[in-house]
Amino acid sequence: MKKIVILISGRGSNMEALIAARDAGTLPVEIAAVISNRPEAEGLETAARASITTHFINHKAFAGREAFDVRLAECIDQFAPDLVVLAGFMRILSEGFVRHYEGRLINIHPSLLPSFPGLHTHQRALEEGVRIHGCTVHFVTPTLDHGPVIIQAAVPVLDSDDEASLAARVLRQEHLIYPQAVRWFVEGKLSLDNGRVRLAAEQTDGAALIAPAMY
Ligand code: GRF
To answer: 10: closest CA among 34, 33, 44?
Structure first.
C-alpha cells in the first residue's frame, strides 16, 4: 500500500478527512506519520488518538528556513512516503525542500487559485465581491500557492456571508476534494509530468455553478 506523510500546523480538519476516508475504506493508503511545526497543533492529538505516529519539529529552534527544512525532510524521509500532503502547514518551504519532493508534494489552499494566494482568502474574496469562491488542491512548486492545479471546488458567495460562513462552506468542499486528490495519486492515476498535471480520471462537462442562481 502507498504511504503518505501529512504535515500540519493547527486544527487538522483536512487531515481528519483523510483519516476518515482511510477508515471508511475509500482511501487505500498508509498514513505513516503526521508532523507538526507547532506543539499545540490540535491535529497532533487527533492523529495520536487514531494511533498514527506523530512528530513535532519546532521551527523556532532553527537558525533559518533552510536548516528547519533539512531537519523536516530528514524526519519525513525516515518514513519513505510516496506522497507528502500539506494540510494547513503554515510554513513557506525553501526551494531545496520543494525540489526534493517534486511531483510528490501537494497542498490544499482555500481559494480558487490563481486568485487569492496567501492568507485571509475568504475575507479578501468578500472584499472583492466575487460571486464564486472555493478551494484548490495543487502540486507544490517553489512559488507560494502557485503549483499545477489538480482539483478545485467552487461555492457561491452569498450577500449574507461573513468570513466564518464563507470559510465553513469552502472547508466542507476541502474535505471532499483532498481525499479525492490523494486517492488519485495513490491509485497511480495522478502525476506531474514536466510541470503539467496528468490525470487518468473520468472528466465530464459537469454542471456549471452560476451564482447567484438564475430563475
Ligand atoms: C485549510 O483551509 C487549508 O485550505 C489551509 O489551511 C486550512 C487548514 O485547516 N491551507 P485544517 O487544519 O485542515 O483544519
So the answer is: 44
